[in-house]
Amino acid sequence: MRGGGDPAAARDRPRGEAPHRAPRREGPRRRPARLTAGRAGGGPRRRCEDLPATRTSSRAGSLGTVQGVRENTAIDQLAEDHTRALVAASPLLATVLGVPGSEHLLDDLSPAGHDAMAALNRATLSRLADLEPVDATDEVTAASLRDRLGLELESHEAGDHERDLNNIASPVQGYRDGFDLMPTATAEHWAHIAARMSALPDALAGYAETLRAGVAHGRVPALRQVELAVAETAGLADADGSFFTTFAAGARPDGSPAAGALAEDLARGAAAARSAYATLSQVLRDEIAPHAPQEDAVGRERYARASRYFLGATVDLDETYEWGVEELARITAEQEAIAREIAGPDATVADAVAALDADPARRLVGTAALKAWMQERADEAIAKLNGVQFDIPEPLLTIECMIAPTQSGGIYYTGPTDDWSRPGRMWWSVPPQVTEFNTWRELTTVYHEGVPGHHLQIGQAVYNADELNWWRRQICWLSGHGEGWALYSERLMDEFGFLQDPGDRFGMLDSQRLRATRVVLDLGVHLGKPAFARYGGGTWDYDKAWQLMKDNVNMDDGFLRFELNRYMGWPGQAPSYKVGQRLWEQIRTDAAAAAGEDFSLRDFHRRALNLGSVPLDVLRDALLG
């Protein structure tokens, strides 16, 4: 369907809603994100000998592509030097990577901190220009460094960091989220937590300074995002309901409640954290909001830059929008056909949802049952795929399924540390009011976050230390590559025969339909595309996008609203799932055509995953060039 047609026009009513069901709200992968990987700052620098040593490979042929021992190259050394500088500058990145020594510190996101990161990126690119690749691995590293650091500099020069504020992946959330992966077993661990909470006033003051610079330069986040952040920061500042209050009160070092000096330090730290967020909330309300634009759309120039940042590829945005319209119509038709198979010849999608939700065999009650089911399904997928569709390294045969300590509704994956002391984990952050879960909705989520999704993808890159330097296996992360692979994995499991049950396949299409809807509304709003006629024509805006979401996404209103606000404030990220999947599928099709009868899907996947997360244009060149 081209020309702005309406794929939902034939339906008489919105899709059904299910109260008390778990949302499928995705946060960014718990990998180095913009807060941690793209920011430098002050604070004491840590000695290089405290960081993992530059590797010399010793495991020959571990994943089928490494032949013998690959010695460290000058480009590898440059990438590792850059990573060491990042980790030294970003205590939150160190926490993500499991590198000890800076647990009491936080990142500097002041203007000076951003300038320091830009200087590091320029210096690395300058050194890179003087180096020649010695093999194909070096070529991929060099191309990826140029793409990632070049875009970081482009974004810095455009002042994007001066309006870095949204409801899911800005420093407001990043500083708080930094506590989620901190160890909590011992008194020393909790002392680090107390010190890090006490560091929040200075850290958030630096971030506020950057936002003020944005006001001075006419670069201010949209009013909707500012208002959302005011509410969020006020919640973190509330003495009774703040995360920091409950987190500190729940300290159980060595299995016992914190006492004495440690308890006092934790109480002071929590109070400092609450005060810091209260101050930021006031800054946002009194200094930023009066200058914030009403318009959600960021326009073509900023959107094109964001799209390249998340995809690592340049796509035709207008063609991509038209493809998104067609893809939404195609998935809708496919899901409607299965709805009739599930609930009768005249059934709608809403009827099928109701029938599946009413099936007691597809219902889980309580988070303990959810966790057990997640673990069973994840282990089952690993057992059945290993040695058949994929060659899964031994450390990746283990995945831990976790109920997150927060209650935001997010579902996400955290990768293993380099030394495998912390395994890969699938996390589900369950809101307190959610007590029941429907397996038909969430089986595809297990495949997305586990195997063959993020667990295989991220873990295999970590395992492939013979081939990949530290930057390649732990720092370089692109949403289009990573989330595109995970969404591609959902379809793969259908292709491999794991979704023969109509309800499970219906759930996979439910997930795919959400992602296609994102493409339409995200590009539609931010690029000012014509809206569907059923929504009143004109150009896409927030209210019309809301109706599109209501018609196509099976979530309750609270989570739909969160998602839509996310798309308005984080342009280009949400479409990178579906567009990334499209690019993965195109690369696979081209590789199969080039290889002819010699094409092996198992070999294609092995070669692709051994590269780690790379820009999708680099992936194409590496696999097809």
Automatic annotation (TrEMBL):
Kindly give the InterPro entries that the UniProt entry links to this protein.
DUF885
Quote the biased-composition stretches of kind Basic and acidic residues, using this chain's numbering: 9-26
- Region described as Disordered: spans on this chain: 1-66
Q: What is this protein called?
A: DUF885 domain-containing protein
